[in-house]
Amino acid sequence: MNENLKNTLSAILETKASAKLPHSLLFVGPGAVGEVEEKREAAKLLACSLLCSAATLDKPEACAVCTECLLVLNGNHPDFINVDCTDKDQASVKSIRELLARLSYRSFHGRGRVVILRSAHDLSAAAHNALLKTLEEPLPNTYFILLTENLSKLPITVVSRCQRWFFSSAEVQENLATLPEGIEMLLDGAISRDEQAVIELCTKIHKSKEDQPELLACVRSLLRKRMIEAVSLEEQQYISKLLQDFISAEYFISERNSNSHYALSAVFLSSERELATELFV
Ligand SMILES: [Zn+2]
Q1: pLDDT tens per residue across span 109-139
Q2: Ligand 1 centre and the CA of 166: distance in Å?
Q3: How far is the CA of 71 from the centre of ligand 1 (A)?
Q4: What residues form DSSP beta bridges with 237?
Q5: 108 CA distance to ligand 1 middle (Å)
Q6: In sequence order, what DSSP letters do the residues of 118-140 get, joined into one string?
Q7: What stretches in the chain show pLDDT beneath 70?
Q8: CATH architecture label of 3-167
Q9: What whole-number distance in Å separates Cα of residue 24 and Cα of residue 239?
Q10: pTM for this one?
């Protein structure tokens, strides 16, 4: 387990130890990098700790050896429910309603339940609405952990009902360690839609030749950091949207040979937002 994941997980467990862990949680972070998807790993370890027969309030860590822990780790625990929201059947409003109805019965092993909704942003508006009441007033001993790569695609009504935790991959940490000089200031200007900063940032990236992929990765990691640090929910969602558009632009630049100056200005300048939609959808 890398340091970053370890630190976030122990912060979550501290919240659990102080009996302040809410029942609705939202884990935001990038998709799998190689074999590892940190937020998914964290959700599984937290589920272990919530269902473990040896864990207590004073010692919230999962023991990883009891039957409950082993069943969760192997993905066979009947009270550990995984929903893949990219799967149309699993994520349909009918399935979500059925799931909620099932949750009103006693859990199989009597220690509660953990429901993980992977790629929660892919749920339909109707499915999100069906979930709202449960997220607001969760059933006793039932925990919902929503996972998303794209905070901006989740309805604010869902986001505001969950406690948010952010995950970055080791790659993000690495990129942030090699930030080129002046790039933070330009990006902050671009985030606040300062036209001059956008032009300078785009020119800088456009003119970098061999190291353009590295520079794009740095800016992407920095955008992710700014999203995590954002104070208000609205700001978090705004930067999350920029981040998603930036990732699309990165794809078009590297895979489709799009003009980097044009593609990146479209991400940051609102007046060109329509162009961005046209470009990236
Ligand atoms: Zn255990």
Answers
A1: 988 999 999 999 999 999 999 999 999 988 8
A2: 25
A3: 9
A4: none
A5: 16
A6: ETGGGS-HHHHHHHHHHHHSPPT
A7: 33-35, 270-281
A8: 3-Layer(aba) Sandwich (3.40)
A9: 23
A10: 0.85
